Amino acid sequence: MRRGALTLGAGLVLLVGLATAQIVRSAQPGQPIAFNHKAHVSKGLDCATCHRYVREQAFATLPTIQTCLMCHSAKMSDNPEEEKIREFAKRGEPLRWRRLYVLAPDAAAYFSHRRHVAQGNIPCATCHGPMAEQTKPPPRALVRFDMDFCIACHQQKKVSTACADCHR
Does the structure show a pLDDT above 50 at 107? Predict the structure, then answer.
């Protein structure tokens, strides 16, 4: 009887753990600001204005509060999302953006924004989809890129598909 109680107890612990993991997974936090890409792009802002170093370095950055304050330190509209920027700044709190586009850790692949954007002249939408048309942050990446996606693009652009070029 004691053995059965232990098995039942272990089963309940496992069940509660799995349920908790599912709840955590489904309750991923949203973005700190409901950023409207379309409104900003329509005013002439280039992706590199907010995503600095996209042309100079391997990694593009996510906008800092200082980047937002370059335009929004004073009120420009009645949009409550704009006021959130100044409230974050007053509290000295950074914007904690949730990164949507990441390479799988097990891919062991190297990706350079500079190489693709500046040298390859590849538009952001090729990998990021129609982000410039988004009026609110999407819940997930608009494009699912994996090795097949990358190889197809390399073949289309007639650039190397040698494993060692990306997998280091």
Answer: yes
How crowded is residue 65: how many other Cβ atoms within 10 Å of its Cβ? 18
Q: Are residues 82 and 134 in the same domain?
A: yes
- Model pLDDT for residues 9-38, shown as the tens digit of each residue: 444 444 444 443 333 333 456 999 999 999
Helix (H, G, I), strand (E, B) or coil at 116: helix
Across residues 72-84, what is the average pLDDT? 95
CA dist 166 and 148 (Å) reads 13
Residue with tokens 């232990």: 6
Cut 0.85: pTM above it: no
Which burial class, exposed, middle or buried, applies to 10 when counting CB atoms under 10 A from its CB (0-12, 13-18, 19+)?
exposed
Share of the chain above pLDDT 70, in %: 83
- Same domain, yes or no: 118 and 159: yes
Residues 147 and 78 in one domain: yes
Distances (CA, A) of 165 to 22, 115, 139: 37, 12, 31
Q: How far is CA 155 from CA 102, 149, 161, 162, in A?
A: 22, 10, 7, 11
Amino acid at residue number 156 = Q
Q: Are 128 and 142 in contact (CB under 8 A)?
A: yes
Domain encompassing residue 84: 37-166
Same domain, 4 and 83: no
